[in-house]
């Protein structure tokens, strides 16, 4: 496998991770917080309905979790492709 092929495989894996993270974030923030909010209004969480919770806190917590998961997965991806930092 040439260096160009290795770089392309690394970039494709990186883009796949980014796209998956963005899809999850969009579903949680836009989907649960805005589009599905009326459907989630009957479920109580912490004294408020679940749709409001996702709009105010849930999407932020999921976004923070995605940051840590992305960093962890990128470190594994870097090691797998031999481009890790020391």
The rounded distance between the terminal residues' Cα atoms is 25 Å
Major beta sheet, specifics?
A: 2 strands, antiparallel
- Judged by helices, strands and strand pairing, the structural class is mainly alpha
Number of strands: 2
Output the number of helix runs.
3
Mean pLDDT: 90
- Oligomer type: single chain
Strand fraction band? Answer: under 5%
Q: How would you sum up the global shape?
A: elongated
Sequence of strands across the biggest β-sheet: 1-2
The low-confidence runs, each spanning 5 or more residues with pLDDT under 50, are none
Instruction: Give the helix level as a range of percent.
Output: over 70%
Rounded radius of gyration (Å): 18 Å
Order of helices and strands: HHEEH
The total number of structural domains is 1
Describe this structure in words.
Keywords: Membrane, Transmembrane, Transmembrane helix. This is DUF4212 domain-containing protein. Residues 9-84 form the Sodium symporter small subunit domain. The chain crosses the membrane at residues 15-40, 52-72. The chain has 86 residues and is mostly helical. 80% of the residues lie in helices and 5% in strands. The chain has one domain (7-81). It contains three helices and two strands, in the order ααββα. It has a two-stranded antiparallel sheet. Helix 1 packs antiparallel against helix 3. The longest helix has 33 residues, at 3-35. 8% of the residues are buried. The model has no long low-confidence stretch (mean pLDDT 90).
């Amino acid at each position: 496998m040439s260096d160009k092929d290795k770089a392309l495989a690394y970039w494709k894996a990186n883009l796949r991770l980014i796209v998956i993270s963005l899809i999850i974030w969009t579903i949680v923030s836009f989907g649960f917080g805005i589009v599905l909010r009326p459907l989630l209004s009957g479920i109580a969480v912490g004294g408020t309905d679940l749709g409001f919770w996702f709009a105010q806190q849930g999407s932020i917590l999921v976004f923070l979790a995605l940051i840590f998961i992305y960093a962890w997965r990128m470190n594994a991806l870097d090691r797998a492709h031999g481009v890790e930092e020391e």
